[in-house]
Amino acid sequence: MKRESKCIVAPSMLSADFSRAGEGLEEVNAAGADWVHLDVMDGLFVPNISFGPKFIADLKDKSTLPFDAHLMVQNPEPFIKEFADAGADYITVHAETVTHLHKVISSIHQAGVNAGISIVPSTPVSMIYQMLSDVELVLLMSVNPGFGGQSFIEFTFDKIRELDAYRTEHKLDFLISVDGGVTTHNAEKLYQSGVDVLVVGTTFFKSTDRSALVEALHAMNR
Ligand code: DX5
Ligand code: ZN
Hints:
alpha/beta
């Protein structure tokens, strides 16, 4: 597949100050980031509650960047149209939360949105082999989902390499995203291992020079 010449930098709004979320999004725009990552949590699949479609819809007209909705919810299917209508350009569901994954991916596509599958650290990549020709994005969680600011789990590198090798072998086109504990220390190795999309929560919002951060991530070589 033709790889992007630069990594896609996707700041996570979970790490923004929710009382001034619009300004947080303006910071994402101004820093030259590529996507906006939106972590939806239901308090069931993960031990935290974040926000739903209205939050995404309210932010949508404040950015022209693609909206990357990561649904960490136990039963996402009934909400897919709502997230599509809210302005999500990618909707990613967790393989662990869905019994009929093929059907849910089809309903994301029917809603006119790019479809993604995510897996938590303990789920093997082989669990989603069957679905890899049907999705535009695979999001590998590199922390146990629920909170920003956790440490990167090192065995994620093995999963990235496995997924990248599968993609090459089967001539597939999906993007590989990594989410959780991404820092300036591990970003280049992640990119070189096959990652296309770097989700950055704490690293982005705690940075004192966000434009320089994005520029440095864009300058990484494969
Ligand atoms: C965790 C979320 C992540 C999180 C990343 O459950 O899916 O997107 O916000 O935050 P950092 O980059 O701080 O690990
Ligand atoms: Zn996420």
